[in-house]
Specification:
- The relative contact order is 0.17.
- The radius of gyration is 16 Å and the shape is globular.
- The chain has a single domain, classed as Vaccinia Virus protein VP39 (Rossmann fold, 3-Layer(aba) Sandwich), CATH 3.40.50.150.
- It starts with a helix and ends in an 8-residue tail after the last strand.
- The longest helix has 14 residues.
- Helix 2 crosses helix 3.
- With 190 residues, the protein is of the alpha/beta class.
């Protein structure tokens, strides 16, 4: 399964496919580096008035960071029960349990309407499926930040290429890319 993940991740990063190689339950957890998280939250201009939803929250690092650094309320949506429990433990250790919530749910079925910021580090097929949900339910002024992968048919408001370059499995060099969208209205899908 690990080799399938590496091939699939690289194919997605290079834009070579749009259909999932795995089901939603099989999406691998790939942790976002803290410096990338910080830049995502800065790009979204997160503050203490925000409610951040991280779809596919993994070990909860984005949620915990938003609460600890900015005082924002934050919600992590994750399907893996072990990662949900790990996230809750990290929130307790960091002293932000009162600001965060972690739910074991399908990110494609969650109600995102309370969010003012949504963060994503999902593959293109997921982003394409979540787009109508975001556009239908987020209020004007809400921000969406995606790590590495765009949303087909929805041009971002801003794109930031980070200076840090990581060496991926197989020796491929990877430069992190962040994409920001601002919700301007709920009048329907573009």
């Amino acid at each position: 399964m690990k080799s399938l993940w590496i091939v699939s991740y690289l194919a997605a990063a290079l834009g070579l496919y749009h259909q999932p190689v795995w089901t939603l339950e099989e999406i691998p957890f790939v942790p976002t580096p803290i410096e990338v998280i910080d830049r995502m939250l800065e790009l979204a201009e997160v503050n203490e008035k925000d409610t951040v939803y991280d779809l596919g929250s993994g070990d909860g690092r984005i949620v915990v960071r938003a609460a600890k650094k900015y005082g924002a309320r934050a919600v992590g949506i994750e399907m893996d029960p072990e990662l949900v429990e790990l996230s809750r433990q990290k929130a307790r250790e960091e002293g932000v349990s009162h600001l965060v919530e972690f739910r074991q749910e399908d990110a494609l079925k969650v109600d995102v309407s309370p969010a003012t910021v949504v963060t994503l580090y999902m593959l293109p097929w997921f982003n394409e499926k979540i787009r109508p949900v975001l556009l239908r339910h987020l209020r004007p002024g809400a921000r969406v930040v995606s790590h590495d992968f765009g949303i087909e048919g929805w041009p971002p408001t801003e794109v930031v290429e980070l200076e840090k370059i990581e060496v991926m499995p197989g020796g491929r060099k990877h430069r992190h890319r962040l994409l920001l969208w601002r919700i301007e209205g709920n009048s329907g899908l573009p």
